[in-house]
Amino acid sequence: MALVEQNQNVDVSVRTVAQDNEDGQTLHSVDPDYKLPKTSSLIIIIVCNILLQISFFIIVSSTNEYAKHLGGSSTFSGVVIGIPTVFSGLTLIPLLKFDKGGYKIPLHVSCGASILGHILYGCAYRANFLYLILIGRIVSGAAFSMWMYTKRYCSDARIVGIRRRTTLAGFLVMGQGLGMSLGPLFGGLLFKLGFKNDVFNGFTSPAWIMAGVWSIFWVCVTLFFEDARGNEADFDIPLPQLSSDTSSKDDMAKPQTESKDADLPAQSSTAPIRPNAPPISYRMNTSQKGVLFCMCWFAMTCFFILGAWESNLPVFGEDSPKFHWTPFSAGNFIAFGGLAAFPFLLLNLFMVRRIEDRKILAFGSLFGLAALLVFLSLLRSGKIVYGSLFMCWWGVALGFNVATTVTVSLLSKQLPPSWNTRTSLAIQYSMYTGRVTGAIWGGSGVRVGMMNYVGVEIAVVGIGVVLFIVLWQDLKAKTG
């Protein structure tokens, strides 16, 4: 009986399935493991992620000067950079109740909040009111709630096959790299140009321009985005939960000719839709809880370090007697480091189809850790020059961006589709925690001492390394 079921599963996974659409036409779909959403909708999600990243980072190069101009401090500028993530997390709570399991409502909320938040940020100069830039960023925080939905979209079993989830996550990471590069670059360039008037100037022009860009994008969302249909729970299938005393017996019983992915703790997207079937009760076992904690820790760690460096570099560059950076110089430095990492992020997009998620995580985190250790040694020796600092920033940007590729996709391969929202939410809250604490920590780096600043980051990464070493076998999942 088991052999018959296995043959049926194999047959379902490789054959081409004929389906009837609403118009009665016959459509031929490819293997469900490799399915992708409608191209226009996928482009909307990817572009939205890039615009969110640019909106987050475009003020990084000038916010320190802007805050000081209005009577604030470097620490306050760090709060301005990081505060949106707090309110983004708060926005997700009611938004999840009204999104109807789709993405169109969050997209509209994101567009509207982005426009209003940028307008408020731009008005602070004319009003000469320091806290208006904070209020503007708080409103923008509601827009950044869409980050969670972009991750959920790329691992949604209704529209994305199990062997395409890490690949689509690679597109999101590529968007992170673009936003991290283009945001500070445009912000620094607009600060340099000046446009000296009370409304449109070096401090406010990034906000006004992004408000216009978001308005155009909102029109595109209304015209071209097609929401996902159905319920993720309809794609659930029973997953094996082996206890420690039975797992060894099952391993011995497996035939030697079994494929290398057959023993992976993941669901297959080839499961048929079960609209009339009762919901499957599923509880994570101990190893899966460990994997979830590990992914959340790395999501927090990567964004803690990236956020800290992005907010610290303008402050450190201005304070250092070797650099004396202006916001324009700091923006260029951050942008060029991100641009130098971008070709490798593009390469990562192709490599994730062939390399296991756990190996991508190990490479990214260890590469970033190596950059932090080099920077610590440069601080101890006092031999920091532009080139050495640039290479450290490049290593941090590349390593920890690559490590974020697998946090959601790996969990989606080990847990049922009905858990996708919960795991995406857990990862996103971890990223929010890292972003806000990292931005504040980076803004305070010079004050607490740069050695202490880097030392804390190394300790945080070290905990993550211990986690993935201990859980290495449990982190195994399908590639792609």
Run of helices and strands:
HEEHHHHHHHHHHHHHHHHH
The number of distinct β-strands equals: 2
The rough form would be described as globular
Backbone structural class: mainly alpha
Radius of gyration, whole Å: 23 Å
Number of helices: 18
Q: For the terminal residues, how far apart are their CA atoms?
A: 31 Å
Spans of at least 5 consecutive residues with low confidence = 1-28, 237-279
What topology, given as strand order, has the largest sheet? Answer: 1-2
Percent in helix:
55-70%
Mean pLDDT: 82
* Binned strand content: under 5%
State the major sheet. 2 strands, antiparallel
Describe this structure in words.
By secondary structure, this protein is mostly helical. About 70% of the residues lie in helices and about 0% in strands. It has helices spanning about 1-15, 40-55, 65-70, 75-100, 105-125, 130-145, 145-155, 165-195, 205-225, 245-255, 285-320, 325-350, 355-380, 385-405, 405-415, 420-445, 445-450, 450-470; strands at about 15-20, 25-30. A two-stranded antiparallel ribbon has the order 1-2. The protein is globular.
Keywords:
18 helices; 2% strand; 2 strands; two-stranded antiparallel ribbon; mainly alpha; 480 residues; disordered N terminus
Short description:
With about 475 residues, this protein is an all-alpha fold.
Topology (SSEs and partners):
Elements: H1 2-14, E1 17-20, E2 26-29, H2 39-57, H3 63-69, H4 74-98, H5 104-127, H6 130-143, H7 146-153, H8 165-193, H9 205-224, H10 244-253, H11 286-319, H12 327-351, H13 357-381, H14 386-403, H15 407-414, H16 420-443, H17 445-448, H18 450-470
Antiparallel strand pairs: 1-2
Helix pairs in contact: 2-7, 2-8, 2-9, 3-4, 4-6, 4-11, 4-16, 5-6, 5-9, 7-16, 8-12, 8-14, 11-12, 11-14, 11-15, 11-16, 11-18, 12-14, 13-14, 13-18, 15-16
